[in-house]
Design a protein that fits this description.
By secondary structure, the chain is mostly helical. It contains 19 helices and no strands.
Length: about 400
């Protein structure tokens, strides 16, 4: 993911990289934590490993969407009490761990963490280089992107979002360089494996990046075709219903899901087990308002991106919107916010607010403020995402108006 020559810094002797030592320190810390976490059996990685093992064995079918069945299979596979679900992932998610599916779980997890950390580190490095023309990435922003709790959560449980981060980052960097086929292919991998990135695809349509869209569609379709002969094809027919049912689950209002939808459900929809004390009785708007807000943000960004000739910030904004559009986004998903953090310019007070929202332990907010209007204090990651989207849009508008 190297920069195209016409985007290199004009400074004599090439661009300075005073941030590289800080990047090295961050990588060393993450590597040490990865070694510490490698021997654990946790939820997260086991979902990818179990799905891949089912795929390789020719046993991946609709039963995987039965949480009890899949959880029992995970326990049998790992000889542990750890449970996990496959819902609401598409069948293609199983492809992510296929190369290590035949290995022992412990070895497979170690390799998975090594690949994840390598991909994440390379992606952060490439994004820091791609920051031009805003100059070098400030070290506080670099370290926040690398050492936020979301990064450690991904490593601790072996989740796949460091790899997803790398795919999104590749898409952003290549799209910024106007290498649309490569950028579209990276986005297509995210779409195919995780059904994420639709918002970025819409931004590309607004910018009339048809080659990127075509490449994304081809890769996503290729992944679907690659997996279909080895699964029970009924999974594809069931998947939309599975996703709808998952979104409708009463547990979707828990504050562990740092989403706009979860916030409004928490405020508006009572449930004796999951939300006994909402702030109001407004169930009729609990779903409509979040979808309307996200749709409005996507449309606004698309309009500004159409008027702007700044693909880097448009792609960063599309990445944030792809995260905001997820119906269920927990701590691990917010690693994606490192992408705009590495690309936008912030003032010290803005960075301080965003850092506080990204660093504060969710145990201190999401698990403490659980009833009434106090729930508004339980969504720091969500607010950080909206603030970073606003920062991307502000920078895009500045480019449109020709400001410095």
């Amino acid at each position: 993911m190297s920069l195209h020559p016409n985007t290199q810094s004009p400074r004599v002797g090439g661009p300075a990289r005073g941030w590289v030592p800080a990047w090295g320190v961050g990588m060393a810390i993450l590597a040490a934590f990865s070694i510490y976490s490698a021997g654990s059996i946790t939820h997260g990685f086991v979902a990818y490993f179990a799905a891949a093992r089912l795929l390789v064995d020719g046993s991946l079918g609709p039963d995987a969407y039965d949480d009890a069945w899949f959880g029992a299979y995970v326990q049998q596979l790992t000889a542990s009490s750890v449970r996990e679900i496959f819902t609401p992932n598409p069948p293609t998610m199983a492809l992510m761990a296929v190369p290590i599916a035949a290995l022992d779980h412990a070895l497979a997890r170690t390799i998975w963490l090594g690949v994840s950390l390598t991909a994440f580190g390379a992606a952060v490095f490439a994004l820091a280089k791609a920051r031009h023309p805003d100059g070098e990435v400030p070290i506080p922003q670099l370290l926040l992107a690398m050492l936020a709790p979301a990064v450690f959560s991904n490593i601790r449980i072996g989740q796949g979002y460091l790899i997803v981060f790398a795919l999104f980052a590749a898409a952003v960097v290549w799209l910024a360089e106007r290498r649309d086929v490569r950028g579209g292919a990276a986005l297509g991998a995210v779409l195919g494996l995780k059904l994420s990135g639709i918002a970025l695809l819409i931004i590309l349509a607004a910018q009339q990046r048809w080659r990127a869209i075509a490449a994304a569609a081809l890769v996503a379709i290729a992944l679907a075709l690659a997996v279909t002969p080895f699964i029970d094809a009924a999974m594809w027919r069931q998947h939309p219903d599975v996703v709808r049912a998952f979104v409708q689950r009463p547990s979707g209002s828990v504050t562990a899901y740092q989403t706009t939808l979860s916030l409004f459900r928490r405020l508006c929809v009572a449930d004796p087990e999951w939300n006994p004390s909402p702030a109001a009785s407004c169930e009729a708007i609990a779903f409509a308002i979040p979808y309307a807000l996200i749709a409005a943000a996507i449309v606004l960004t698309a309009i500004i991106a159409y008027r702007s000739d700044e693909p880097r910030l448009a792609a960063a904004a599309g990445t944030v919107l792809s995260l905001l559009a997820l119906p269920a986004a927990a701590e691990v998903h917010f690693v994606l916010l490192g992408i705009p953090l590495l690309l936008i310019a912030t003032r010290p007070w803005q960075l301080a607010i965003i850092a506080a929202l990204l660093i504060v332990p969710l145990e201190a907010t999401a698990e403490r403020f659980t009833s009434g209007w106090a729930v508004l204090l339980a969504y720091p990651r969500l607010y950080a995402a909206w603030l970073l989207w606003a920062a991307c849009v502000k920078d895009l508008l500045r480019k449109v108006s020709g400001g410095a």
